[in-house]
Amino acid sequence: MSGLYLSRGLYPEEFLRPTVRFILDCQRDSGEIPWFDGGYTDPWDHVESAMGLSIAGEHAAVRRAYDWLAGLQLDDGSWWASYRGREVDNAQRRETNFVAYVATGVWHHYLISGDLDFLRAMWPMVDRAIGFVLALQSEHGEIDWAVDGDGRPKGDALVTGCSSIYKSLECAHNIAVTLGEARPDWLPARKRLGDALRHRPWRFDRTWESKARYSMDWFYPVLTGVYTGADARARLAARWDEFVERGLGCRCVSDEPWVTIAESCELVMALLAAGDHARAVEVYSWLQQWRAQDGAYWTGYQMVEDLLWPDEKPTWTAGAILLAADALTEHTPAAKLFCSVRLLEEADVQEARERRVRVD
User: Fold this and answer.
1) How many other CB atoms are found less than 10 A from the CB of residue 127?
2) Mean pLDDT throughout 38-51?
């Protein structure tokens, strides 16, 4: 199928139900959501898949997913790069972007479910995770991308990873405010990180070749609110022709003939964040040709070889499809999470509580 054009209020629930079922079928009884049946699980993609299940209203499965993650959290608040069940699959590093993303997932589920007990239960995990991440922030504002197996910082920072952390810090702050937990250092740390991303590009890719050829370095600062308004639109316009293949999707890397479905979905949400609704609808409409019969989506398409590559249908790609559909249709209360920036104040929480009391 191709040409699925989505608009506000018209979430294709029946069409996307097989996509939800695919994620559920891959989820283990423990709550773990591997990349695919027989694959490993990393913390970031596990959360992305759980977010897809939140959109679908699969609250019990979502709770199991976060409980599984909480059960594996290390004493310093981090997780290893990947797992197979409860066994560590990759003990070479612990990535700050992976660790921080749990705050985004937890806040996303709370926005949808309104489950304050869930938020309270997950707070210790979020608090420890953010503590680990911010301990790796330099005086210049950027956050080291990882520590090695012995806990030593890797000594460099990634634009995409730090941009994702920027959104996670917004979500972590909102969780803290909602629960009445004072974390006065979090917003200043977020501000320093944003300043580094916008004004100190030399603090990134210091020890390896620039990652600017990757599309995520292009659109992630828009997706996560580092750039907004006219600045966001200008950033997307500047390299549009390098990364976007009309009728196919967004390239993963500018110099490789390969479009990827998850990056295309994230670009859809970045376009919405920049106020370009028409192009967001158009890009999403191209992606249904990469849907398999079971409702899952292939990782990507290699244009020169004319083949689907790799031969994988990841759960996190299915999650990204659901997130972009929600953002386009505004189906759930979390639909605008990646399309806007909102930093709560105590007055916002009090107002929401008073509304709930009036409704009850």
Assistant:
1) 18
2) 98
